[in-house]
Structures are given as C-alpha cells and as structure tokens.
C-alpha cells in the first residue's frame, strides 16, 4: 500500500520518504526536483521522449494564457527558459497547483495534479469539448532503482494503467460512459540508468509504481469530484479547475 502525503504551502519543499524527490510549490509553477540529473521518459509538451533532466515542472495556465492562436508548446518552452529551466521537462494544467497530491511506495514517489474538466472515455471521445478549464492529469514518477530503457517504457505503461484504474474508481460519468482519463493527460517517468529490466505487474517494482500512482491520482480525482461533481457537462462555461 502506498503512503499518500499532504501538500505543502507556497515556497516550501516537500521531501518524499525513501526517495530524493523534493516538491516545491511556487505559483504558477510546481517543481519536482529529482535530486540529481536523471533519465526521463515522457510525452510532456516540453522536451518529450528520452531526456536527461534534474527537474520536472508543471505550469498552471489560465484561459488568458492559452489563446486559440497561441503555440502552447513554444510558449511553455519560452516560459521555462525564462526561469532557467529550459533543459528540464515541462507540463501544463489549469488545475490549481495547491491541489497536487504526493504518494510513495517502496523506492517510488509519485507527484500528480488531477483536473477532470476535459475527462474522456477511452475509445469514445466527446465531440463537444469544455470551453474553459483544460483540467489535465499530470504525473511525475521517480523510481530510485536503475532501469533499462525497456523497463522505463514498461513502467510508463504501469503508470497509465494505475491512472486509469484510479479515474474509473473516482466515478466520473460521461454521456460516453465512465471516464478513464482526460484528453490531455501527461506522464513522466524518471530514474537512473541501470540493469533492472522488468517493471511489470508481477514485479515488486511494478506493484510499487501502481500503488503510488493509483493512490495519488485517486486522492486528486476525489478532491476534484468533491468540488465539481461526478458528471461534467459537455461544455463547462465557468469551470477553470481552480
């Protein structure tokens, strides 16, 4: 079972037990310090793929930031460069960063921001999208074991599976069925290069990854449901996931 940790206030670094992860809330940024330069695998908008980075950053955005003509990926890169993090990995969300959740299990720590304003059922996308509030599930996972590239890919698949299970458990009902995620979810897995070749569900490492991610995402999803309800409208004119 994972241990879920409370969020800290602005400017205070939160250490996660048994890992080197330090999380600092400095609006409009949430900064995950990985302790040293790590190998990071992600599909983040800023520096996706296999990268080397010391930090994973999440930028809170508002409607005024993301106008229709804006190149959001370039904008995020410029913002990260402006604060000296151009070589790190970056994500975005409209969810209030104070709602972030942390969980740990064994050698694994998970940071998640969970907004569900644009929730989707896998395989059955909604044709009408929310007009405001691109709530996203962002996950940054630190594994203190050294993994091969193949194991990192497998670990990322376990993260996605655990996220999906947590969102289903949160009970978000859409016209297309039970929500399984959002249309803009993002995952980053960080570790040192190493010899551990497997991270699947039959392994202790896979179990730890699943537990940490599931608990962090479920806590964040239940908090969102408590604020907004379990039946998001097709278009939500005032939902900013604050």
Tags for this entry?
ten-stranded mixed sheet; 3 helices; L-amino peptidase D-ALA esterase/amidase; two-stranded antiparallel sheet; disordered C terminus; alpha+beta; 242 residues; 14 strands
Number of helices: 3
Q: What is the overall silhouette?
A: globular
- Provide the domain count: 1
Mean pLDDT: 90
Q: What name is given to the CATH topology?
A: L-amino peptidase D-ALA esterase/amidase
CATH architecture: 4-Layer Sandwich
Strand/helix succession: EEEEEHEEEEEHEEEEH
Outline the biggest β-sheet: 10 strands, mixed
N-C termini distance: 29 Å
Question: What Rg is obtained from the alpha carbons, in whole angstroms?
Answer: 17 Å
Structural class: alpha+beta
Per CATH, the class reads Alpha Beta
Helix content: 10-25%
Q: Which regions have little confidence, pLDDT < 50, spanning 5+ residues?
A: 235-241
Strand content: 25-35%
Can you put this structure into words, describing what you see?
- The protein has helices at residues 72-82, 149-170, 204-228; strands spanning 3-5, 13-15, 22-26, 29-42, 49-60, 89-93, 101-105, 108-114, 119-120, 137-147, 173-174, 177-178, 181-182, 186-193.
- Strand 11 (173-174) and strand 12 form a beta hairpin.
- The radius of gyration is 17 Å and the shape is globular.
- The longest helix has 25 residues, at 204-228.
- With 242 residues, the protein is an alpha+beta fold.
Q: What is the gist of this entry?
A:
The chain is of the alpha+beta class and 242 residues long. It is built from three helices and 14 strands. α2 packs parallel to α3.
List the helices and strands and how they pair.
Layout: E1 3-5, E2 13-15, E3 22-26, E4 29-42, E5 49-60, H1 72-82, E6 89-93, E7 101-105, E8 108-114, E9 119-120, E10 137-147, H2 149-170, E11 173-174, E12 177-178, E13 181-182, E14 186-193, H3 204-228
Parallel strand pairs: 5-6, 10-14
Antiparallel strand pairs: 1-7, 2-3, 3-4, 4-5, 4-14, 7-8, 8-10, 9-13, 11-12
Helix pairs in contact: 2-3
């Amino acid at each position: 079972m994972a241990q879920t940790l409370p969020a800290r206030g602005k400017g205070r670094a939160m250490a996660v037990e048994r890992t080197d992860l330090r999380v600092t809330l400095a609006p409009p940024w949430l900064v995950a310090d990985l302790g040293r330069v790590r190998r990071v695998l992600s599909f983040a908008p800023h520096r996706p793929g296999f990268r080397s980075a010391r930090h994973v950053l999440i930028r809170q955005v508002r409607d005024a930031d993301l106008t229709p003509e804006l190149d959001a990926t370039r904008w995020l890169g410029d913002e990260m460069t402006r604060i000296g993090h151009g070589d790190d990995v970056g994500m975005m969300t409209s969810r209030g960063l104070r709602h972030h959740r942390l969980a740990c299990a064994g050698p694994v720590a998970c940071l998640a921001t969970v907004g569900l304003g644009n929730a989707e059922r896998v395989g059955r996308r909604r044709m009408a999208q929310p007009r405001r509030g691109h709530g996203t599930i962002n996950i940054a996972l630190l594994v203190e074991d050294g993994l091969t590239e193949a194991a990192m890919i497998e670990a990322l698949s376990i993260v996605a599976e655990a996220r999906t299970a947590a969102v289903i458990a949160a009970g978000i009902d859409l016209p297309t069925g039970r929500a399984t995620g959002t249309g803009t979810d993002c995952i980053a897995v960080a570790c040192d290069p190493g010899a551990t070749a497997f991270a699947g569900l039959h392994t202790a490492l896979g179990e730890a990854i699943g537990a940490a991610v599931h608990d962090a995402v479920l806590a964040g999803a239940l908090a969102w449901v408590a604020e907004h309800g379990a039946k998001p409208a097709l278009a939500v004119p005032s939902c900013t996931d604050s």
